[in-house]
Amino acid sequence: MAVPSILRKHDPTPRPRDPTPRPGEASRGERRPSTSTRGRSTGRHWLICAGVLLAGALALEAATITRPGPLPGGPAVLYLVLGWWAVAMLAVAVLVRVAPRRGVLLLLVAGAVAIHALVLASASGPRMSDDLYRYAWDGKVSSAGIDPYRYATDSQALAPLRDRWLWPDPAGCARLGHRPGCTRINYPTAHTIYPPVAQAYFTAVHYLPGPPREHRLQLYAAVLSLSTTLLLIRVLPRFGRHPGLAAAYAWGPSAGLDVGMDAHVDILAVLAATAALALLRQPRQAPPATPTTRSAPPAAADAHPHPSGRDPDGGSQHGGFWTARRRHHLMPLAAGALLGAAVAVKLYPALLIPAAARRRAVVAVAAAGVVVLSYLPHVAVVGTAVVGFLPRYLTVEGYNEGHRFLLLGLLGLTGTAAKTVAVAAVGSVALVVWRTDPAGVPVERAALWVLGTAFLVATPAQPWYSILLVVLAVLAGRLEWIAVAVGPYVLYMALFRDLAVADVYARPGGYVLGAVVVALVALFRQTGSKRRARGAGSRHHTEDGG
Questions:
Q1: With bands split at pLDDT 50, 70 and 90, how would you rate the model's confidence at 73?
Q2: Neighbour count for residue 36 (Cβ, 10 Å)
């Protein structure tokens, strides 16, 4: 009977090695490349692929810039933007295959700089939206010592502030395709809609040095965008993500078109909201030490304290407890202040508060305090006029009548019924998020749930509103939500131009496809989790039975 090998007596006598190489084994004298060498070679290949995709993104951006025609351009602009999104997502898929070392980070930053440098070098105006002219006008009004909420844009009280750029002469109006007496500013009979922190930004840009006219706004929007990219690269590891995910924003149309060309102030709100979430997010804990891990005993760490009384990480050894307590209280307070600043730039970041304020009411209190304090000086001057264009905006966009909720409209809901269901849907998700445990559902994922639901329910037409959705998808590692962020581009262009698809399909089509992508990925992820759970259970059963 054969004896099992594990029971055989060990023979310590060394056996001579057979000089004949085994199949697949290098013979003597040959040197097989090490694993690290092969890894570096493969990494270089992926970096080259990422560089090629970056060049493709820049080419699509250049084609978008040079498209002729008035805002927002012809249907070709939409097709270029969709291709641009596809290239950016492919770049993400390539970058995450490379270890997040210096080469990846340098390529990420270089690509982000190139995306904005191309816009500034081309000296082109906005591509899809003319909101930046309103920004310049509000900044000029505030710099003259006039509250921006006091007068409508075309008020005669502001006539002395008009210039030939924002208020062209008849020849300039003719070149723009308008009648004499025109202005570049949209809704000239309305008061401004932008909240106080946005107004402070417009005023600051008015005073800051830089190129003239719209190019100054594009320059400082690029500065904010690059700051957002650097912040993403810095905090993504804290969120347990590969920094290459940042390319979904930094190399895509959100950065190049909505911020770079159109200089939307939303990027200021996104930067503040991202910083707030980073403060609230706890770093991933290091795995517990295993028996094979060599570590110094706890007493050894304190046996030789640092001569300065500070630990090697910069903390105080004598006051560490109080320092930790201060950080525990100050971090939520600072995060709430940043979130309040984001709300005081554009109102919709308020949707992040249910996720950010879980188990930390101070976040909501701080955010509300910043919003109230920012409005108080204007309320003291103009009273209720601070609401500006907001009520009329809701009417123009179709929310007051309830016909803007495109996906709900496909279900036969319009008017009051659509508004009721919309409020109930967003409110229910916000309540569910509020009741979740931050340790189980990270803040960025909870915020994505609320904002993503609001997008699918409200179906806004403005593509620049989705900048925050893109950044949240990056932070949460849920890039399927970027399909929802693409929906506004299709809707926005369908409102102004005739596309290859009929309006009845084109307008809700982008959001329908986005919702389908999110649902399919969620189903696939849930199925995979169940399969892994069953596999783990079967392994435990085998071990217990064996």
A1: confident
A2: 8
What is the pTM for the complete model shown? 0.85
C-alpha 471/C-alpha 448 separation (Å) is 9
Task: Give the mean model confidence (pLDDT) for residues 264-277.
Answer: 98
What is the average pLDDT score of the chain? Answer: 87
Q: What angle do CA 70, 75, 81 make, to 5 degrees?
A: 100
Cβ(179)–Cβ(222) under 8 Å? no
Could you tell me which residues come within 8 angstroms of residue 378 by beta carbon, excluding any fewer than 6 positions away?
147, 149, 196, 386
Would you say 229 and 62 are in contact if contact means Cβ atoms under 8 Å apart? no
In Å, how far are 207, 209, 213, 217, 272 from 161, measured between CA atoms? 15, 20, 15, 19, 32
Cβ(228)–Cβ(259) below 8 Å? no
Residues in the chain: 546
Choose among 50, 56, 80, 86: nearest CA to 67.
80
pLDDT of 257 > 50? The answer is yes
**Cα separations (Å) of 191 from 5, 187, 195, 365, 386?**
87, 8, 12, 29, 9
- Backbone torsions φ then ψ of 191, nearest 5 degrees: -80, 165
pLDDT band at 316 (very low <50, low <70, confident <90, very high): very low
Of 542, 543, 482, 468, the closest CA to residue 513 belongs to: 482
Give counts: helices (H), strands (E), the chain. 21, 0
CA 15/CA 398 separation, integer angstroms: 85
What span, in angstroms and rounded, lies between the C-alpha atoms of 111 and 92? 12
Question: What tokens appear for 496 in the block?
Answer: 């102004």
> Rounded distance, CA 444 to CA 277, Å?
7
Phi-psi map region of 512: left, alpha, beta (phi>0 left; psi -120 to 50 alpha) = alpha
Tell me how many degrees the CA angle 236-521-477 measures, rounded to the nearest 5: 0
Question: Can you tell me whether residue 290 is helix, strand or coil?
Answer: coil
The proportion of the chain whose per-residue pLDDT surpasses 70, expressed as a percent, equals 82
The whole-angstrom distance between residue 511's C-alpha and the CA centroid of its chain comes to 18
Backbone φ and ψ of 316, nearest 5°: -85, 130
Across 423-506, where does the E strand assignment appear? none
HEC readout, 139-208 = HHHHHCCCCCCCCCCCCHHHHHHCCCCCCCCHHHHHHHCCCCCCCCCCCCCCCCCCCHHHHHHHHHHHHC
- From the CB of residue 202, how many other CB atoms can be counted at a distance below 10 Å? 24
- Residue 226 exposure: Cα atoms within 13 Å on the Cβ side: 15
